[in-house]
Amino acid sequence: MKMTRETLDGVLVLRLSGQLMGGPDADAVREAIQEALRQGGRKILFDLGELTWVNSTGLGILISAHINASNLGGKVGLARVSRRIESILAVTRLDTVFQAFADEETALRALAS
Amino acid sequence: MKMTRETLDGVLVLRLSGQLMGGPDADAVREAIQEALRQGGRKILFDLGELTWVNSTGLGILISAHINASNLGGKVGLARVSRRIESILAVTRLDTVFQAFADEETALRALAS
Amino acid sequence: MIPPDADTFLAGDPGRSVLLTIPSRMEMLAVVDGLVQAIVSQLNLDEDTAIAVATSVVEAGTNAIQHGHGHEEGRPVHFRFFLGDDALEVWVHDTGPGFNPDAVLAADPTGPEDIFKARGRGIFIMRSLMDAVEFELGTRAGTTVHLVKRLGPGNGSSAVAGT
Amino acid sequence: MIPPDADTFLAGDPGRSVLLTIPSRMEMLAVVDGLVQAIVSQLNLDEDTAIAVATSVVEAGTNAIQHGHGHEEGRPVHFRFFLGDDALEVWVHDTGPGFNPDAVLAADPTGPEDIFKARGRGIFIMRSLMDAVEFELGTRAGTTVHLVKRLGPGNGSSAVAGT
Ligand SMILES: Nc1ncnc2c1ncn2[C@@H]1O[C@H](COP(=O)(O)OP(=O)(O)O)[C@@H](O)[C@H]1O
Ligand SMILES: Nc1ncnc2c1ncn2[C@@H]1O[C@H](COP(=O)(O)OP(=O)(O)O)[C@@H](O)[C@H]1O
């Protein structure tokens, strides 16, 4: 997994590429989110457009992000969810936990409001 | 390998997709070309845009086509050659045998003249 | 399934078997996925079937590396793919301690209490996406997960139809 | 290289070895290529290096299926990939009759007489695209082609760098 980050309209945007599968991936994401939350950020958007797949350990990373943000009254969204990632979210019912948006723009508008 | 054929401006256009690697692939291409030559066609264009790769046995198929057409005064061109296919043509010097064109239109104009 | 040596290969239907062995490193799952993509594309499977198989094989591989081998990279994980006419079957084998699947099979990670847990979804995912998931334990050292995806019409033609 | 059983795997550097076994069917070369694509992508190799390796492995596999096994699909072809820091190495093994590589190595299929021949380019292609191509014959039944691609800077970092 590779990750780039940017803050747009007060939302921490994490753009992931490759595969999300726990281990070092988890540390990188957790660190980025902890830092944003410490600095007062409360909204996180994962752009998954360049992510080939996520496995169940990778789902754990997204869930931790959700819990950490929620505990502080924040929220987490997903943008550009591929059919393959949509499938694993649907099967695990995590599509009821994460709001998914077609693109970053739509997501930023919804999260900012 | 999958193949579709069409005759455009008197040129037999063979559009290949998948991988070209001898065996049944050779028979399908040979048959299409023999039929065109029998009916008086003399110009053949392979559109390789959807072909992932060709191996050395696949190169043999293209060479046979070239020889069969040349023997009757015809010619063979290639369109949309990917970097990978360009590489095997360059290494074998077959880039000196086959004229390559960026797209079908350019190829048809050149072959028709 | 025992580790894939030539005998194992020949014992099945060798013209339809593909074997893969990887180190126990999570990033090797991307290599496994690449092979699965090539196999499902070779079989002309529809996208949903392809996704189901790839996702499940990655989950089984994740468990083998993580729970079976504790991320000790030198311990090989073996995959066998059987490209049948009616089904694509996959065996994923590790030489780890094994486990009792009964408790896992009873769990539902989608319930309101469990949905926020970071773990416990792998086997549920496989069972949701495949037609059969079996665990072979005890006959030889280690764990083998046997995954079956039946291929109906619309899921490509014969597995041996070729290019 | 002998057929990939667990012992062979462990004898090398198992944390960096990937093994693949396929039936002797030409269309299975697409499956081999899929695995190679995933490996070179995992290693972050540049496009030219990736093409060189994939093309050469497919050529070695073509020869194993065609000349080694005469397209008898039940005879397995074995591939071993070694993901070293300085080189990507591949062994392709068949159990066929072998051959004398000397005559082949002397031939140049690009000369004016040979360029229109339908065959005789496989080994030349491998030798042109790889840093080393060796044939291991005689020690065990069959032929093993050993391909080496050295990885310089710009060809990805350490092979074990991960995702
Ligand atoms: N190959 C295996 N070897 C040993 N234990 C396993 C294996 N696969 C699964 N398990 C056990 O079953 C449990 C449930 O697995 P799973 O549903 O995949 O969720 P998770 O891996 O997230 O815990 C694991 O926590 C582990 O204890
Ligand atoms: N694995 C092999 N087993 C037996 N003979 C082989 C093998 N690989 C190559 N050869 C022999 O070497 C010759 C040259 O091989 P190659 O350069 O790949 O061209 P081609 O395969 O088109 O003939 C083959 O015709 C064959 O006689």
Summarize the topology.
The complex is a heterotetramer, with 2 copies of chain A (113 residues) and 2 copies of chain C (163 residues).
Chain A: E1 2-8, E2 11-20, H1 24-38, E3 43-54, H2 56-71, E4 75-79, H3 83-91, E5 99-101, H4 104-112
Parallel strand pairs in A: 2-3, 3-4, 4-5
Antiparallel strand pairs in A: 1-2
Helix pairs in contact in A: 1-2
Chain C: H1 6-11, E1 17-22, H2 29-42, H3 47-68, E2 77-83, E3 87-94, H4 101-106, H5 122-129, E4 132-137, E5 143-150
The structure holds adenosine-5'-diphosphate (2 copies).
One adenosine-5'-diphosphate binds at residues 63-64, 67-68, 94, 96, 98-99, 104, 119-124, 143 of chain D.
Structure write-up:
The complex is a heterotetramer, with 2 copies of chain A (113 residues) and 2 copies of chain C (163 residues). A 5-stranded mixed beta sheet of chain A has the order 1-2-3-4-5, with helices on both faces. Chain A has a single domain (2-108), classed as Transcription Regulator spoIIAA (2-Layer Sandwich). Helices cover 43% and strands 33% of the residues of chain A. In chain A, helix 1 packs parallel to helix 2 (56-71). Chain A is α/β, with parallel strands linked by helices and 113 residues long. The mean pLDDT of chain A is 96. In chain C, helix 2 packs antiparallel against helix 3 (47-68) and helix 3 packs antiparallel against helix 5 (122-129). The radius of gyration of chain C is 16 Å and the shape is globular. With 163 residues, chain C is α+β, with helices and mostly antiparallel strands. Chain C has 5 helices and 5 strands; from the N terminus they run αβααββααββ. Chain C starts with 5 loop residues before the first helix and ends in a 13-residue tail after the last strand. In chain C, 34% of the residues lie in helices and 21% in strands. Chain C has one domain (25-154): Histidine kinase-like ATPase, C-terminal domain (Heat Shock Protein 90, 2-Layer Sandwich). Chain C has a 5-stranded antiparallel beta sheet, with helices on one face. The interface between C and D is large, with 38 and 39 residues. Strand 1 (17-22) of chain C pairs antiparallel with strand 1 (17-22) of chain D. One adenosine-5'-diphosphate (ADP) binds at residues 63-64, 67-68, 94, 96, 98-99, 104, 119-124, 143 of chain D.
